[in-house]
Design a protein that fits this description.
This protein has one domain (13-137): tt1808, chain A. The protein has helices at residues 13-29, 76-89; strands at residues 34-38, 54-58, 63-71, 94-103, 107-116, 121-123, 127-128, 133-134. A hairpin with a 3-residue loop joins strand 4 (94-103) and strand 5. By secondary structure, it is of the alpha+beta class.
Length: 142
Amino acid sequence: MQNAHIGMAKPPKGHQRLIGDICSFINNELDNEYLALPEANISDADHQSAIPDVLVVNIETEENVLFIELERKDGVRAAIKKMQTRMEESSFIECFIVQYMPVGFVGYAIQKWYKVTPLEAIENDTFSELLDIDFDDLDTAT
């Protein structure tokens, strides 16, 4: 049975699982100052979505401070541009892109991380100064 009542195609299970794994990793590593939340309504390859795949909120100030987008190789370039625009228009301090590949029904393989600034995308930079964690320590599921 399809999700006709939702009105959109759901992303692969690996995409959804990676979002959950990143949120769990962040929330397990941090104190109670920040909270990582998954995108509530995810649609694969929707580069116009205003909601990032992973959103980190400062609990005290209630500001969105970091976001992470998951992309397959062909969507990275558009995601970088979207993130740079979003950073200029918002309170986001840090942004990352995870380039991944689905593996089987529920698995994924992280291929590359990009740290995005308003001026550039830094390939293989996995350290968040804001959160003081290294995403390279994330255990990946395949």
